[in-house]
C-alpha cells in the first residue's frame, strides 16, 4: 500500500487500501434505528448475526451479503448515501467529510489494537439481533460514545 494512502481521495484508493481504512470498531455491525421524519440515526446494542464480539469484526465478511442482504456496503461512489449511517468516528465517514483520521486509528498508530486500547471499539454487552423482537429495539438504544 502507498504511504499515507488514507489522505488521498477515497475514489483514488485501491481495494486493499479501501479495506484497510476500517478501524475495527465494530459499530457498523450494530443495528441502528432511523427516525423517518428527522433522519436521525440511533445505535442499538443489538448486533448483526455475523458480529463477532471478541474481534469486533464480521465473522463472515467475504460472503456477508449472501447471509445479510441488508448489510450496508460502503464504496467510494455510494458514500453520499451511506456515510450518515456510519459512526461519527468511522474512517470512511471522516475521509468522505474531508477530515483526518483520529490519532488512535491503527493506520496512524501502526498498532492494530489501538482502536480497542483507545476505548473506541464496541464494548459492553450486545445482543444478537434474533434474540430481541424488532419492536423492542428502542429499549436497546445506546449513545455512540457509550458503545
TrEMBL record:
InterPro entries, per database record: Puta_zinc/iron-chelating_dom, UCP006173
Protein family membership: Belongs to the UPF0260 family.
Protein name: UPF0260 protein SAMN05444002_2738
Organism for this UniProt entry: Vannielia litorea
Amino acid at each position: 500500500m502507498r504511504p499515507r494512502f488514507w489522505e488521498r481521495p477515497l475514489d483514488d484508493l485501491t481495494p486493499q487500501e479501501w479495506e484497510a481504512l476500517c478501524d475495527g470498531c465494530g459499530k457498523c455491525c450494530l443495528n441502528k434505528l432511523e427516525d423517518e421524519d428527522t433522519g436521525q440515526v440511533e445505535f442499538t446494542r443489538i448486533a448483526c448475526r455475523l458480529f463477532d464480539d471478541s474481534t469486533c469484526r464480521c465473522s463472515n465478511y467475504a460472503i456477508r451479503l449472501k447471509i445479510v442482504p441488508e448489510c450496508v456496503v460502503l464504496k467510494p461512489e455510494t458514500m453520499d448515501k451511506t456515510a450518515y449511517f456510519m459512526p461519527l468516528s468511522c474512517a470512511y465517514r471522516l475521509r468522505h467529510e474531508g477530515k483526518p483520521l483520529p490519532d488512535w486509528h491503527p493506520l496512524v498508530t501502526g498498532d492494530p489494537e489501538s482502536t480497542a486500547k483507545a476505548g473506541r471499539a464496541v464494548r459492553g454487552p450486545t445482543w444478537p439481533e434474533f434474540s430481541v423482537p424488532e419492536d423492542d429495539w428502542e429499549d436497546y438504544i445506546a449513545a455512540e460514545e457509550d458503545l
